[in-house]
Amino acid sequence: MYKTLFRHYWLQTVRSPGYYKNVVVNIFVGLMALYFLVVFVMLGLLLPKMLQEILPGNDPAVTFNGIIIYAVIALLMIRYLMQPLSRLNLHSYQVLPVRRSALVNYLVLKPLLNPLNYILLCLTIPFSITGVYPAYGTMGAFRFLFIILFLIWFNTLLAPLLKRQFNNILFGTILFLLIAGGLAALEYFKIFSLFLLSQNLLGFLIETPFICSSVMLLSLLAFMLNKRFFARNYYPESFEVKSKRSKAGSQRFTFMERFGKTGEIIALEIKLVLRHKRTKSTLFTALFFLLYGLIFYPNPIYNQNPGWLLFVAIFVTGTGMLMFGQWIINWDGSHFDFLMTRDIDTHTYIRANYTLMLALCIVSFIATTPYFLFGKQIILYHLVAFLYNAGVNIYVYLFGATLNTKRLELSRGSSMNMQGVSYKNFLVMIPLLVIPITLITLFGLINATHIALAIIALIGLAGILFREPLLRVIEKQFLRRKYALCSGFRKKE
């Protein structure tokens, strides 16, 4: 029966109208996966030397053991945000002689077959050769990989359970951040060291031949908890209370009505974001990416590189706009015909989308002002990036959105979902990031970084000053593409 269920899933995938239309996107994703695979393999080979430099005098394998629990928590949070939920049309199978336990097991175990779950093994397998084998021997290296594999399974099974259990990604994300912050504070003030606990526990498991198999109990526990959840929530009637609560708590943004039709359209767009899975998960991902600067700004390798600094500044100061901009028209696809038959002129529709994207850009910039504590240099880069986002990137996204005629299914999650994506989504990245980064890199070669920043800022300022002519160009482009968009959004992939 499991073979039949997976065969049905495969046929559903390859028979989808959008499967062969997204060949270019699939090739790009495959190349990116291959790139990261090579990066992880190289990192695994070089990791012992890197750990030796970070903590000299400590064995790299012992240091890595101390990091593992923190890595499990971090990866669990990433999976909670990004890992899509397994789905099955239960009504099609409930009328057939198929055991209920088989359907539940299929839903629970299906994520384990995703190859992306095992990309971490591309790092740990080389590290087990270069770092674990010298410290623990051949069997210790095998036990190390055995432990890592079952921790991956534990994470993969637990993340969808938490997502289904909380039913509120924002609440779960805040809870994760509080737990991680509390553990970091305990580590910093030397009250409780999770690092030492992880070192001792993983070292004991690797050195003990049979006790290491106890890690299987974690995966088994996550599996049984999933089974328990589906035992209580197997039938659609179980979710009626939740749906009634969500309908009762529907949002109204009456304060936007004072801005006329433009305000009404913005209010509708905000409701759309807050009511659909794909837009909500994109919103929470954007909030998560606001912390992207913490990876680069404290690191001397990056904070002395103008190209990296500008890339991070453009990304974090416009993360809301960058995440939503390319879908600003596509997410109206399910009701685009309705909008085009209402008393809404093109001028109002384009201005509403422009205002919403500008608001997202301003909110992102304000939210990243704590990065100013890293120095005056960061303030300068963020101001230049904000001007470039508001004066150039916003128009690029509005113009590029008119070219993508693929409808988005908002009921699906956005994580690992390429539905509605085309090569045009990647082409807009050239003016967004490639041009300013190339410009500042070239000027950096002659120690004229400030001249490049001034040019980029002036280009952005000119875009803000000449807003009306630029928006009129986008209006004309929208009118030329209007019927192509209507036709494309009617097709379901």
Counting helices, strands and paired strands, the structural category is: mainly alpha
> Largest sheet at a glance?
none
For the residues shown, what is the average pLDDT? Answer: 80
How many whole angstroms does the radius of gyration measure?
Answer: 25 Å
> Residue ranges: pLDDT <50 for 5 or more in a row?
239-250
Shape: globular
Account of the 3D structure:
Helices cover 74% and strands 0% of the residues. The longest helix is centred in the N-terminal third of the chain and has 46 residues, at 121-166. The protein folds into two domains: 2-245, no CATH class; 258-490, no CATH class. Helix 3 (23-54) packs antiparallel against helix 4 (60-82) and helix 22 runs antiparallel to helix 23 (449-465). By secondary structure, the chain is an all-alpha fold. The two termini are 27 Å apart. It contains 24 helices and no strands. The chain has helices spanning 2-14, 17-21, 23-54, 60-82, 90-94, 100-109, 121-166, 169-188, 194-207, 216-232, 240-248, 260-275, 277-289, 293-296, 300-303, 306-317, 319-325, 336-340, 346-367, 376-401, 424-427, 429-444, 449-465, 467-490.
